[in-house]
Amino acid sequence: MFFRRWNFGWDRFSEVDIFTDRHDTSAETLSQAIRAAASEEPDADGSVPFGHLQGTVVGLRYYTGVVNQGEMVGLVRQPQNPYDRNAVMVANIYGNQVGHIKRELAAAMAHIMDNNLAKVEGVVYSGTKNKFNMPVTLSFWGREENKNAVVENMARRGFKLNTSTSRPTGANEMSYNSIQRKKGLTIPLTAAELKNAFDNLFEGLVESDDGEKEAADSVATPLLPHQRQALSWMCARENKSTLPPFWEKRGELYYNTLTCFSAKEIPERVRGGILADDMGLGKTLTTIALILTNFHNGKPLPVERCEEERASPVKANTKPKMASKPAGSSSAGDGAGVSDAAAGSVCSDLPQTEVICVDTPDIVEITSQSEKSASKGKTKATKRKPSKAAPVLLDDLDFAAALGGSASDAAPKKKKTANKANPTPSVESLYLQRADDLSARATLIICPLSVLSNWLEQLEQHVRADVKLNVYLYYGSERNRSQKFLSSQDVVITTYNVLSADFGNKSPLHGISWLRVVLDEGHIIRNPNALMSKAVLDLKASRRWILSGTPIQNSVKDLWMLLAFLRLKPFDVREWWNRVIQRPATQGDRAGLQNLQTLVKCITLRRTKSSEANGRPLVSLPEKNVSVEQVELSQQEREEYELARSEGRNTIGRYVAEGTVLRNYADVLAILMRLRQHCCHPDLLAKTSSSDLGAAATPAELRERLIEKLRSVLASGSDEECSVCLESVNLPVITHCAHVYCRPCIAQVISTEKEIARCPLCRSEIKASELVEFPQEEMEEEKSTNAERWRASSKVQALMGNLLRQQSEDSSIKSLVVSQFTRFLTILETPLREHGFTFVRLDGTMTQKRRTQVIQEFQSSSADGPVVMLLSLKAGGVGLNLTAASRVFLMDPAWNPATEEQCIDRCHRLGQKRNVVVTKFIVKDSVEENMVKIQRQKQDLVEKAFGSTNSDRKTSRIDDIKALMEL
DNA sequence: ACCGCCGGGTGCC
DNA sequence: ACCGCCGGGTGCC
């Protein structure tokens, strides 16, 4: 249990502390804490208003937090308060305490808040002249089923909730309502409009006013226009001093127009943002250019130059690769900074003249300047205002101005011009160098393991050969953990996994003040409860970037994590994000959605492959030609298929009639999968024939069948998701009712239930001891398909026909042969070998090292290199660069057309020189054709709709299944 | 805090 | 003088 001392030094403690530990301090038991954490998500989304009431905030004079008229406040339980264990603290957006809720009301609220029956939110609508207390409007939110309990509980203690519909929702509700009424916009968005709006959230985010910027000399590759534009935008985001969105200067104060919070201090700006360009537009190159181009004060990164003639014989060694290997020499690790870190390189033998290091004159100047401003800032921050009568309720500034009270420049009409014309003190000058730690040099890049090698390659490729950029790959057990060493690098690259493994274990990465932290594929930090996310949020950096081709994957919720990483005040605190953006937006409030769009627009640059700049496409990729080749089954195959189909149809038809599709979901999937396997090759079915319904005879048999089903579900390659976390299953286990979940997810469900745990999908009773795992050794026996017994199939012949024809036309063309079934890939190896095709294989079971090796082999242009890559659809994930191929054969259709697109994009991307030809093999009159039909429907509707609940998705899947089986 | 509450001083008008 | 009234001290939770 965390004990918090409520001493007097706490008015400056960070707002994150207050809210993130909320459950720790309020929950009495662990199970309560788990329940609280587990229920946090649904609460935020599915909460309904219970009502509101007027309360009183007392004790204002003891605290420094001030509140504007109309400002939102946070309510935090303080169970450890020595005077009253029911205490409820009131804090403003910055987490500065304003006061407490009056005792009797707090006593009533404590019970409700502690049991998570409702979330209580406060807004201070009307002011008071009084320095000691003020009214606050408290609104209660929660799950529908808790509403009556909450209302009654409050009533019993003498607090009647006003349940009328004119609920106050946010600080500016009054003004929004009046604006909306005038414009006639009170009707909330329909679900379809909402979905569309979310879908398009990241569309058309092209910031064109920044112009273009040339990269520093040290960048070897000339940037394309859109990359120069991105570089310019990124530099501006790092250097320019504009107020964050929704903040404006009013008189002497900085005012947040959404929460009505204001502060004397300038709100911390966001140095960085989201580069959300489509895959293939060169986010990596642009980021490398940013690193080299924008050091402190917009100057290029001071990098050591090797003299051409001396360096050239060993040029390769001085390049990133050299530095990237773990520096074994202890002198480099523990040495004193830049020059020692370079000790291993050839360059250190050169006269020091070319070495630009930290103590060049102009940098010294900057440093001293920063010290000045830093100390100035410090005194400002620590010096308490002598007039301790701080807690005055500030009247609305416009209101004050209208009364003729204060500064005329706050008058509404003049406000805008006054801000522009009056340069003293400009926002720009106020920022000074405050946020930038000028001693910071290194950029930390965090990426998924799958793209790690890509970063190293691209650094090698895009950094000039005579520039010695210190790049360190922080990976592997031998990694150098010296902070001194790491912080003296120019670039440190690591993976999310390494970062979270280090986290909490005196992580050197967390002890360093980075110049810049870059999250590559940043959308993968999405779950705020994940250790990885926490590890990422805990990094110290003055500039923060997220690179992601798909910043939103499922819902607006995903955005929060990104904003929290960027530290976009005040939305980095979940409560304010929920109250001000997420809830209004998901409930169809137009103003809320508008705010969300503004927010995204301010921090994001996104161009798609089809975007244009000045009427010309950003990148001219070679053409892509997608065609479907129908495959006719042989008579024997057709007979076998029809037999399986009618069997399956009967079974599924029975489930549909009984309404037990969900209960038998795994079976249904297995049937579908078998049909899909029939379409590819009969041998794929060998393993999965025996299982049928019926009472299990022995536990061993049951177990065998469950494993069988689990294997079917997994082997199908369909993007089976865990119904608890809604992501692809991780550490899959199958329940006795044959539903597949991630082990941690279902384990949590079981441990949270008090008495009997039930399957989230079919409500059958489940036990932790009955979860069945996929046995490890299963993977091995798959290889047993022997060559003698090998036979062809129509689809195999179709592929081979294409490959042979192509080889005779142009033998230099390389192909990707893609299937969801890794066993199908194995089957395909035989005819490929037979016809003398050299090939490599890439699937999910391979180690990263092997993958890199295979990709390199495939990408190399050597004459006897592989011409075919057998690729499992889900392998590798995004970012894979397979531009050596210009021909793609999709052997079987995927549930999700986006997966296919992504796969095609691995070769149809920047760097592709040839036209790309894609062939999709679809068996005529089969489940595959139906899958394609469903894909088409989905492209209109766009799968993974926002706001759709888990059960909605399952229902739509049932509909899909019916369509597939033509029921 | 232009309140409420507490507790000591005080006690016709 | 076991009350009322006055006026100073005081005040979140």
Strand count: 29
CATH second-level architecture of the domain at 8-168: 2-Layer Sandwich
Mean pLDDT: 75
Radius of gyration: 31 Å
Class from helix and strand fractions: alpha/beta
Largest sheet: 7 strands, parallel
Q: Give the class-level CATH name of the domain at 8-168.
A: Alpha Beta
Could you estimate the helical fraction of the residues in percent?
25-40%
Biased composition (Basic residues): 375-387
Domain Helicase ATP-binding: 423-569
Domain RING-type: 722-763
GO molecular function: ATP binding; ATP-dependent activity, acting on DNA; helicase activity; hydrolase activity, acting on acid anhydrides, in phosphorus-containing anhydrides; nucleic acid binding; zinc ion binding
Report on this structure:
By secondary structure, this protein is α/β, with parallel strands linked by helices. Among the domains are: 8-168, Alpha-Beta Plaits; 634-781, Herpes Virus-1; 791-948, Rossmann fold. It contains 37 helices and 29 strands. Helix 8 (225-239) crosses helix 9, helix 25 (574-586) packs across helix 26 and helix 28 crosses helix 29. The longest helix has 24 residues, at 635-658. The two termini are 56 Å apart. The chain binds a DNA duplex (13 and 13 nucleotides) through residues 6, 57-63, 78, 81-89, 99-103, 106, 130-133.
